[in-house]
Amino acid sequence: MNKNKFNLWNISSVIILLLMLIFIIYPLFLILGKGIFNSETGAFTFSHFIHFFERKFYYITILNSFKVTIVSTILAVIIGLPLAYMLRKIKIFGSRFIQIIVIVSYISPPFIGAYAWIQLLGRSGVITKFINDTFQLNFDGIYGFAGIVLVLTLQSFPLVFIYIMGALKNLDNSLVEAAESLGYSNFQRMTKIIIPLIMPTILASSLLVFMRVIADFGTPMLIGEGYRTMPVLIYQQFLSEVGGDAGFAAAIATIFVIITVTLFLLQRILSRQYSYSMSALKPMQAETLSGTKNILSHIAVYFITFIGILPQLVVIFTSFLETSGGQVYTGRFSLENYKNILFDRDLNAIINTYKMGFYAIIIIIIIGIFISYLTVRKRNLMNSVIDTLSMFPFVIPGSVLGIALVFAFSDEPIFITGTVLIMVIAFVIRRMPYTIRSSTAIISQISPSIEEAAISLGASETKTFYRIIVPMMLPGVLAGAIMSWVTILGELSASIILYSTETQTLAVSIYTEVIRGNFGNASAYSAVLTVTSILSLLIFFKLTGKKEVDL
Amino acid sequence: MSVSVNIDKVVKKFGEDKVIDKLSLDIQKGELFTLLGPSGCGKTTLLRMIIGFHSIDDGQIKIDDKVINHIPVNKRKMGMVFQNYAIFPHMTVEENIAFGLKVNKIGKEEMTERIDNILKTVRIEEHKTKKPENLSGGQQQRIALARALVIHPKVLLMDEPLSNLDAKLRIEMRNAIKNIQQEVGITTVYVTHDQEEALAISDRIAVMNKGIIQQIGKPEEIYSRPANVFVSQFIGTSNIIKGIIKKKEDGLYVHLNDMYAVKMNNLKQDEIVDKQEVLVSVRPQEFIITNEESGIKGKIDSTMFLGLNTHYFVNLDSGERVEVIQDSEEEEILPEGKDINLNIKSKKINIYHADTKETLIKAGGHDEQK
If you classify domain A1-42+350-506 with CATH, what class do you get? Predict the structure, then answer.
């Protein structure tokens, strides 16, 4: 229709593609290059890879990562699936509130969970002390494998829960009733109808959990102690290799990316293979149970929800405890921790987090709207490439992205390491997919004839876009943007590599304070972060009238 | 005010596939012109070429003798009503209608006046400040109509505007559309696959199939004198049975079997040879069930009583199967399995060439009926 080569769409496609090439593709290729070429001679070499697979010290991290991830994923499904089913099937008092609590426990960053569980079950944790005193034991706290699995399971089951809640909502109850009328028992209906229909969702959500858990850096770093996973190894190698040969860190990063890409492709294939389009005319109705069954199911639901939200409660609670020297709790309440972080030192960490987060979210919303519109409505070769590239951040672990950006932008022509800009870029790349996903979903629901109507009434394509499409997309865009925003606040794995004293964030501060043993400050920072996330979410729910977020 | 639309040998290709090939059509000032055909016949494609959502690959479209091929959609000043209404959900009824006026920079006073007038015309004044999500399908369609008309378009285009409505509302809305169109007097192109809707609403109809116009005419012409077998079967119900034309001294006779023939006065004599095989198109109500021995013999296979009339599905001795309609009031209902004889109303039936499937009725044959 419009033969003009230089219209708004082509220009924005070119700009977006260029940005992606410079800030995603180029840094990643640099990593690969550093991994397979000798930095001095420039010769092609597999020596870094051989080095990695020769020593158990290194390659054990792959096994560790997989062990932790597989166990946590399975446990997350075992907890998340029944919880979702119970909430859909049984009338639970306060079920809407429970759903919000589960979402809140999902949005808080995993390393806060790690930190909180150290407070409870660590060497000098409250529960540890109680058990040791009561039973005269010598329990040394939950560190290593068990600790990581505990934290990541509790962090991940909400994701499975939210996905399965969605799938069950779309499951038409007449299918279950049809099976009942054909003589199927309650148990048979569960195994023959419900589970097979939500199987794609179970698979999809567990693969998402898998990807998140395997790439998580903060949890194994804080609670893992000697139990090292791949992101930890990459970080340590990168730090120790700075100034020297970065090739080895790059090689490990490459191996890691190969693993995550494989998983990602597997997920795409599976989700394409097993998907039913369901829309429930008559969704499942929650029923009131009576007697013991009712009490037991309430106890189960409340208990799981409580354990999930426990880290947030612990963090807020301990932030009001007085400490001596910031390390040992005295058992009294005080606002000393807040005084420390708010008045006794500069507010940079807090201001930086909001400021850089705000810049990033603005960029994410603008680019997100364009990417989703272009990839859905202006399908061509260039936009298909953009579509594929926009999925990359799902695949690249934060620590790998961090290293890649350092490699790429520490020298002319683009020297931005240590600046606000590189942090913002990392945030945008890491957290854009949430916004793109929900924007793409909503643009697909807008009928093309809406645009045609506006054009037939005399509006130009550009005007139609700003006046009709953007306002109509906004609810979907914001649903994704809220997830982008909240996860930006808790971004650690790339920030820890990219930050400088000027760009330190809350997440980085929490991490460094915990490492130094300054639990007082750490808890106050964590409380600020947690409360900000919860408030953002609640404001979003209030403004949009929604009860759900797009993950 | 109103304009004529002149479509001259237009071509539309999707890849190698010619969806429309050298189609020509003249739409007169102020008429409601319907493009009617089964899905995939190219009617919507043609409509979208008129408004400009599809480019014109060859030929030209003229509005009052001015070629519009290269005028962009938003400058063509054509109003369009979409199948799914395409109401802007984030705007009120008033804002929806004002949208086209705002982009065309109409002054405040005139805008208010025009909006109030059109709201009155389509009768949705009381919903002015509502959001469309709270309105019914029929009301949304009225908004869509108002929004398209308020910009004073040269031509109004309607793409299956009633197909998302339920049966009762569909009839109500088609009357409303017809009335509003006559009141405004705007040249209108209306696309539908529903033949009953087309007959009810149109000044003239173009029946399309596979990108080709089969017949253009007034609704009654198209119904009673279909130009070919396709049209006769697409518009209403027609039984097609084989026959042979025999030339006799007093004229042409169509033989339906050895015993039964009818004399035809309205055939194109020059195109007919003796003993030519033809297809005879008989509508169910053009059969007469008779006790006379001469006629087409058959056996009633099934009976369907529909109140006003009764439908019989009859297996003819020739192996053909036909549908026959009889007035329920006047005749008693015949049992299934009964042998009957059928005669036909020769003035009503249509005769088609067995190979070309084109009509053999003289032009104006329609008029001879009166």
Answer: mainly alpha
